[in-house]
Structures are given as C-alpha cells and as structure tokens.
Amino acid sequence: MKSKRIFWWFGLLCSIPIICLVFSNFAMAAGKEILIGAPVHMTGPLAPDGLELKWAYEQAVADWNKKGGIFIKSANKKLPIRLVFADDESEPAKVAGAIEKLIKVDKVDLLLGTHSATMSVPAINTAEKYQMVYHCTTHWPEMFRDQKAKWASVMFFSAVGASEVPFIIWETLLKKEDRPKNVALLMEDSPDGQAFGGGFRSHAKTHGVTFAVDEPWAIGAKDYSSMILKMKAKNVDAILLYGAPTDAITLVRQIKEAKLNVKYMHGWKGTWAVEFAQALGKDANYVICDGFWSEEFPYPLCKELGKRYTDKFKKRSVSIGAFYGTAQVLFMAIERAKSYDKTAVRDALRNAEYKGTVMGDLKFDEIGLALFPSTANQWWDGKQMLFYPPVKGGYQLKLAPEWGKR
Amino acid sequence: MKNLKPITSVVLATLLLGLIPFVSDSEKSYLVYFLFLTFCHIVLTQGWNLVAGYTGQVSLGTHAFFALGAYTTAMIWRADLFSWENYYFDPVTMILSGLVPVIFALAIGIPLLSKLHGDYFALGTLGFGEILKVVCIKGGQFTGGPIGIMLPSSVYTTMRPHYWTALFLAFLATGVVYFMTKSRVGLALVAISEDETAASSSGIYILKYKVLAFAISAFLSGLCGSLYAYYLFQVSPEGFLILRWTLYPVLMCVIGGSGTVVGPILGSLLMTAVFTVTSIYLPGIHPIFSGIIIILVMLFMPNGIIRLWKKGV
Lengths: 406, 313
What we know:
The structure holds two protein chains of two kinds.
Chain A lengths: L1 H22 L10 E7 L6 H20 L3 E3 L4 E3 L1 E7 L4 H13 L5 E3 L4 H13 L4 E3 L4 H7 L4 E5 L2 H4 L2 H9 L9 E6 L2 H16 L4 E7 L7 H9 L4 E6 L1 H13 L6 E6 L4 H7 L6 E5 L10 H12 L6 H18 L4 H7 L3 E6 L2 E5 L4 E3 L3 E6 L2 E6 L18
Parallel strand pairs in A: 1-4, 1-5, 5-6, 6-7, 7-15, 8-9, 8-10, 10-11, 11-12
Antiparallel strand pairs in A: 2-3, 12-16, 13-14, 16-17
Helix pairs in contact in A: 2-13, 3-4, 10-11, 13-14
Chain B lengths: L3 H20 L6 H25 L7 H18 L11 H25 L2 H20 L2 H4 L5 E2 L9 H23 L1 H11 L1 H6 L4 H27 L1 E2 L1 H4 L3 H13 L6 H19 L4 H15 L4 H8 L1
Antiparallel strand pairs in B: 1-2
Helix pairs in contact in B: 1-7, 2-7, 2-10, 2-12, 2-13, 3-4, 3-5, 3-10, 3-12, 4-5, 4-10, 7-8, 7-10, 8-10, 12-13, 13-14
C-alpha cells in the first residue's frame, strides 16, 4: 500500500509541470513594454561565450532604458525594453526548444540571436516557422544566404573573408623579406576546424602560398612532439591554427620546449581567451588572435564598453562589441519603425543603413545581411592589441624573435 | 477480453491525445511542442527497451541510427531522388529512412552480437556512432560536412503534422514492443536476457533474435530521426550525432522501468517534463535539479517507476 501511495504522489508531482505547461499558454503579453527574447548558451561547452553574449545584451538594454526606452507610435510614448533568456544548452537541437519557449511561453515580440553558426541555422529555421524576427551575429553569411530566411537578419564577417586575413596581413603589413615562407596549417579535427581549414587552403592558392605542413589537430592531445618535429624539419616560420584554448596553450608550451622559432603565429578560437594569456604569461606575447570587435575601434561607446567589461570581469574581450552592436541595431530598427510590430522591424532591417554603432556604420542588404571586417589582435603583456584592420595611431604588429632573444 | 483491455486503453489514449491540436493552438501552445518531444523520446526509448530491456544487450548506438534516418531523409530530399514535388512528410522517404538504419544494424549487428556481449557490445555500438560522426564530418558534399544538410524551412505551415506523426510513431513503437513481447519472439528475447546458455540449449537461435531486436530498434530510431529532420530542417553531426540521443532513452527507460511496455512511456513523460520545466523556470542551473531528480529516483525506485506500481498492486 505504501508503494502505491508513493506512486500516486509521484503521479501528482509529474502532473504539476505538465499543468504549468498547459497554462503557460494563457499568459498574456502586457503591451506596456517591448519584450525581447534571446536564446543563450547558459550551460554546455559554449557557456563562457554565452555569458559574454548575455552580459552584452543586458548592457545594451540598460543603456536604452536609461534613455527611457524606445518611442512607439501606437503607444505615443517611449516603452521600456525587457529581455528574457532561454538556455539553448550549446546544442543545435536544444536551441529550437529554447525558441519555442520564448515564442510560446514568454510571448516575446522579437528575438535576438544566440552565438555560433551551428546554433544559428536551427535557430533561424525555428524562428522562420513562426514568422518571428531573429536578429543575430556570429552566423556565416554564406550559410545565411542558403537559408533564404524571410524574418532573420545577420551582421557578421564572411568565413571566406576571415580566412583571408592572414594573407592580407602578410601582403599589406609586412615587408617582402619578412613575409613567411614555410607556413603550417594546424586545424582542429572538428566541424569548425574543417570548415576553417577549407577557407585557408582556398585562399592560400589565390595568394600563391603552399602549406609546408597541413595536419588535422587532435582535440585534447597531450603530446604534439611529432607534429612539432615535422614543422622543425620543414623550417616552418609561420603557423595558422584553429583549436581550443587548452590545446593552444599545450601547443605553445611544447613549441617553446622544442625551441621551434616561429615569427608569426595566428590562432582562431583558442588564442583569444584571456585564459590563454594567463596560462602562458610572457610566452603569449607575439601570438595573434582573431576577434569580432575591439575597444580600440574609433566608434562611439567602444572604449566605455571595454572599460565596463574590464571593471566587471577583470579582463578584456574581443567579442562583446559584436553582441552589444547586435542588440543596438535591433533597437535602432524599432526606433526607426516607431513600432515593435515584427513586419515593421523586419522591413527596417532590410536595405537599411545604421550609423554610429559600436561596430561602425552597418549597411544591411535586401536579405538583411550586413558585413563587418574580422579583426586580428596581438597579445602583448596580457592584452589583445588590435592591429588589423589598422587604426590610425594604433598598435603595430611585431614579428616574434627567437625564444632565447625574447 | 482481459487481453483487450490494455489495447483499448492505449488506443483511446492515443485518440484523445490526437485531439489536443484541435483544442490547443499548435502555433501558440508550448504543450503541443512538449508532447511532440515526449512522443519522440517514447519512440527512441521503446527502441532501446527492446534491445536492452528485453534482450539484455545494452546498445549505445541509438544516436547513430537516429542520425542515419535523418541523413537519409535529408539526402533523398536534397537529391530529389524520386523527382517528386514534395518530400515533406513523404511516407516513402520516411520508411526508407527507417530501412537504411536497419541495413546498418544488420551489417554491424551480426558481427557484434555474435562475438561481443555486455559492456563490449555497448562499446562496439558506441564506436559505430563515433565512426559515423567522423564519416559525416569528413563526407564533403555527400553529407554536407560539418555544417550538414540544410532543408527548406519554407514548406512549414503548422506543427500539427509533426505532432500527429510523432504520436503515431510512439503508438507504433509501443504496439511493436507490446505484440513482440506477447509473441514467441518476446518469450525468446526474455529467455536470452535471463540466461543465454539455457536459451540456446532450449533450441532458441540466439543471434537471430538478438539481431531482430537490434534491427527493429534501428528502424524505430531511423523513423524518429526522419521526423526530427522535418522539424529542425537541418541535419548536422552536432545536431544528430550527439550522445544525448542515446543517453536520454537509456535514462528514460531505466527510470520508467526497462523490460516493460509502459515503463518507457512513463519515463519519457516524466523526464521530458523535468528537463523542460527546469530549463524554463530555472535556466542556467537546471542540470543540477534534473540531476537531483535522477539520483532520487534511482535511489528510491531503482527498478523504475512502473515496478513500484506493480509492487503496490
């Protein structure tokens, strides 16, 4: 009998969440505020990026609410903005659920995007089903074009363009005699690593570069000695790498131990995290990392945003500007439309130009795509120093001397 | 008459559930999405239940068959294989998406099940998933590589076909498990699960029954993968070839009660509700609460919820 009683209690407990879900349908939007939803990686492997995204969105909302919100014609007054988040758990299959929740449970008016292209594809597909505006960054324009989305808009750089950056740097910022001769391409053995690798190989051909070493980079390996020996044998003087921070740290340490002297080391994904510089100390100097944004950008609010971030987290970021800018552009679109009606906002994000954002002036084309350049930064005494695209009076790229002369 | 009672109850429950999209707006109600997800979990859980719960062979390859089904649907659609106007919820495409995993299940099941038992078989199926993942990532244009295959989401009009198809598949999976367990095949499977040597000496052709259960499980997972491809409109290694699609069915089956027909349904309903509600109301910290619930259930109901009921009765 006791077991049966437990079983009924258990049944009652089960029914509570289901009842919650049934009645969530009747929650009414107040109409006294502009409700923006955003799927975010709060858990899972991409959570550190997700938390940066969340912080940046919150900053943008706080800044606009400080001004009283956004003027909405139908209300004849400024309405405050409220943000609601849903955890996408860093999984493409879960981001669809997060968007279902934001649309159906929270009844959001518009959506801001999550982070990374693999998440953006299913996120946009789900938002499209419900004809909901989805404005995002960190999604490859090439993939976005293929999606033929009617309700989404993207502001980012192209993968093709990003993988051309090192070749442009060598040709425009380095003297002919300083340009690398034997380049190694080490791409993480993962979907993103493979995708990036393809871009580098294609650009190498057009820029007349042949890779002396081109190897998949094993995730989580502890010993890269065979790869380093191969690079030594081929007199490698530049490395392009794509991998996780922990792997990048291990690789740089082992390169130093093996006394492999590389004058140009440019990393993606793994070398931009502050943990990379903290773990390597002075050895991180001269290493180059990618980025979406820099507080050195000569655009309004960039310095202040960078300072706010450093005050809060005691580190610098090369991405928060892109996230802040995404929210900023959506709010500017609402302001321009004088409405948060999804059709009006969607139309305001097509064939439109937004000036004075933290990402500079952005021009959206007929499919809602705006491009900005990818950045390159060099680690110097624990700081990512922007050198590409060059900023007037800004930091100049330094080529790494031999390990013994640093 | 006694035998007809559970069948009638399940048919009535299915019909009632089928009416929900008429009562609740499928485009505005989260309940429809929640039940869709639950039905998908039931299909996968029943498939795993057949192999592990009844036959005693723990498979960790559910995600591989699920992905194979999804990739088959996406490839047929992309290649316009039958020159048809529409592949969206096309029954032929869906059935083929179930059959392709069956071919793979036979190809790997016969060598694995004839040579490996217990943990070794589990690791073998896990290895199959990993191999498939690498193949899909490095498959170039054939598999779409790391990005996968994108399908046109413009064909979407409503959530209703997803809901009804998922309900039908859950009903089908439960029906298959029920009728198999009531047949001679079911008796053979249980005999194999309890004592392989004794079963073999009684004249049961062990490999045949094990492979049969494994292939049916693969068929159900493939059908579910096809349906999920129609929902997500993108089939990628990161979306489909992840261990979650294997671990969730294992967890749901064990919590509900493996080796029973109703256990996987209860487990899927409970765990989908727990995961969903905690992620809605406790975003960011929900894995802690989900974890606590799993630990509590396993501590106090190690044989699954359904056995607690049976004990009470």
